[in-house]
Design goal:
heterodimer; A: 116 residues; mainly beta; B: 109 residues; six-stranded mixed beta sheet; five-stranded antiparallel beta sheet; 11 strands
Chain lengths: 116, 109
């Protein structure tokens, strides 16, 4: 079972460069999420997509854009990378389970991004 | 105030010890509750969901007090392999998972 797959695993960017982080899930989940994790800050939500065709801002959306390409894929784009965006990025997915309660979030392995 | 707060840690305990982690959340509309485990430089993984009646999984026991907006995790008979960061997570009505900052546990031989 692949679960949630993120690419790339590592990336170094120069300030001002752009890149797209890719995420795909094979669990037929409706909801997908992008988080960033910085030392001492925990995981903070950047954007999420409750269902195909919808996206919403999270706690720290500035400097990022997202695309929910289809039910499986949710990409995160940095248009002009800044050193403050150096972080570990995690994609996650979730779904409604039995009784209408949401299942837990399943995470990809993360992308370690350094902006110099 | 952060929406989800946890003991700052770190906790350094000997093998075989019992250790308890506490978590509080501020949004009374939070729907679901979880404890995740995160190993160094790895993705978070579900340890257990937390139910109002309390639940147990082997050496791990989780409790939820909705009135006090408080969640706990008890680990009995700690093993070296329990060393990790433990994340308290709540799911809000808008389908957002909100993570606490985590509490690091080191189990010492």
């Amino acid at each position: 079972n692949a679960g949630v797959t993120q690419t790339p695993k590592f990336q170094v960017l120069k300030t001002g460069q752009s890149m797209t982080l890719q995420c795909a899930q094979d669990m037929n989940h409706n909801s997908m999420y992008w988080y960033r994790q910085d030392p001492g800050m925990g995981l903070r939500l950047i954007y999420y997509s409750a269902s195909e065709g919808t996206t919403d801002k999270g706690e720290v959306p500035n400097g990022y854009n997202v695309s929910r390409l289809n039910k499986r894929e949710f990409s995160l784009r940095l248009e002009s990378a800044a050193p403050s965006q150096t972080s570990v990025y995690f994609c996650a997915s979730s779904n409604v389970g039995t009784g209408g309660l949401w299942t837990e979030a399943f995470f990809g392995q993360g992308t370690r991004l350094t902006v110099v | 105030r952060k929406e989800v707060e946890q003991d700052p840690g770190p906790f350094n305990v000997p093998e075989g010890a019992t250790v308890a982690f506490n978590c509080t959340y501020s949004n009374s509309a939070s729907q679901s509750f979880f404890w995740y485990r995160q190993d160094c430089r790895k993705e978070p993984k579900l340890l257990m969901s937390v139910y109002s009646s309390g639940n147990e999984d082997g050496r791990f026991t989780a409790q939820l007090n909705r009135a006090s907006q408080y969640i706990s995790l008890l680990i009995r008979d700690s093993k070296l392999s329990d060393s990790a960061t433990y994340l308290c997570v709540v799911l809000n009505y808008g389908q957002n998972f909100v993570f606490g900052p985590g509490t690091r546990l080191s189990v010492l031989p």
